[in-house]
Specification:
This protein is α/β, with parallel strands linked by helices and about 280 residues long. The protein has helices spanning about 15-25, 40-50, 60-65, 80-90, 100-115, 130-135, 145-150, 170-180, 195-210, 225-235, 270-280, and strands at about 5, 30-35, 55, 70-75, 95, 120, 140-145, 160-165, 190, 215-220, 240-245, 260-265. It has 3 domains: about 5-10 and about 195-280, 3-Layer(aba) Sandwich (Cobalt-precorrin-4 Transmethylase, domain 1), CATH 3.40.1010; about 15-100, Rossmann fold; about 100-190, Cobalt-precorrin-4 Transmethylase, domain 1 (3-Layer(aba) Sandwich). Helix content is about 40%, strand content about 20%. The strands form 3 sheets. Strands 1-12-10-11 form a 4-stranded parallel β-sheet, sandwiched between helices. The protein has a 4-stranded parallel β-sheet with strand order 3-2-4-5. It binds FE3-S4 cluster.
């Protein structure tokens, strides 16, 4: 039997667990939709589809629906104010499963932009969470995810600045980018809104990857937090494998490894993690 170190923080965080549970609770109703896939995990989305929960990907798709009645669940990433209002106007019942930590960012962004501050979001502008956050500012936001963008930033020095972060952003990178922006001498108010769940998962993944011969990272191929976990682990351990389910794992590649680490992104269900654990250990 192999020596396997399983990350305690692997898998669903509080916000995702809450959102997924909410969808399963509502699945018994008629005409249930989620606005975007509830999590970045194809298996879970497929299972929900079989239970009659369909995914709506855009407001256009919502308007094309024949039904005016039904339930739309907003996922943990949250949505912009515009999207929220449009869904409400459509007439469906909204079940808001936005993670409370994301709601907190929406509140900061709205309040601080109303005070006239320039909002800077440290994050990936194509990520749905960031798109949602952008939409709660009453003024145009600036999204920064690279050193180059931080260095190029030029603002009116008399305007106060409020910096928030995408919840799943890498903590080290956030510090680096904030430092570059801080050196420009603006009057800055920094809210580190990176979620602890992400930080803990990343730190634990790094610690485990340092100790093991091979590392397995489990998560959906389009899950940005899993991708980040993979990068962190790959940095510490050359033999790091990114898989979605057990099927993607070539167990023969782990043959030489005495000690194997396992972690998983925030959207990876427990049954998938356990299946990998059992097979890697055998
Ligand atoms: Fe919420 Fe943190 Fe998860 S912000 S959705 S608990 S990663």
């Amino acid at each position: 039997m192999k020596n396997v170190i399983m990350a305690k923080s692997a898998g669903f965080c509080f916000g995702v667990k809450r959102a997924v549970d909410t969808v399963y609770e509502n699945a018994k109703k008629d005409h249930v939709y989620t606005f975007g896939p509830i999590i970045h995990n194809e298996e879970v989305v497929k299972d929900l589809e079989e239970k009659g929960v369909h995914v709506i990907n855009s407001l256009e798709e919502l308007h094309d629906l024949k039904e005016k009645e039904g339930t739309i669940i907003i996922r943990s990433h949250g949505v912009s104010k515009e999207v929220y209002d449009a869904i409400k106007e459509h007439g469906m019942e909204i079940v808001d499963a936005t993670c409370p930590f994301v709601l907190k960012i929406h509140r900061i962004v709205r309040e601080e932009s109303e005070k006239g501050k320039q909002i800077i979001i440290i994050g990936n502008e194509n990520h749905p969470e960031v798109e949602g956050i952008m939409g709660w500012s009453v003024t145009p936001t600036i999204v920064i995810d690279t050193k180059e963008k931080a260095e190029k930033l030029q603002l009116n020095p008399s305007v106060e600045v409020c910096i928030v972060s995408q919840t799943t952003f890498n903590y080290k990178k956030f510090q680096e980018l904030v430092e570059i922006i801080s050196e420009k001498g603006y009057n800055i108010n920094i809210s580190n809104t990176i979620c602890n769940a992400t930080e803990e998962r990343q730190t634990e993944a790094r610690d485990i990857a340092k100790q093991v011969d091979a590392m397995v990272v489990i998560g959906g191929s389009s899950s940005s937090n899993t991708r980040k976990l993979y990068e962190i682990c790959k940095n510490e351990c050359d033999d790091t494998f990114y898989i979605q389910t057990l099927n993607d794992l070539d167990l023969s590649k782990l043959g030489m490894a005495d000690c194997i680490g396992i972690t998983a992104g925030a959207s990876t269900p427990n049954n998938i993690i356990e299946e990998v654990y059992t097979n890697v250990r055998a």
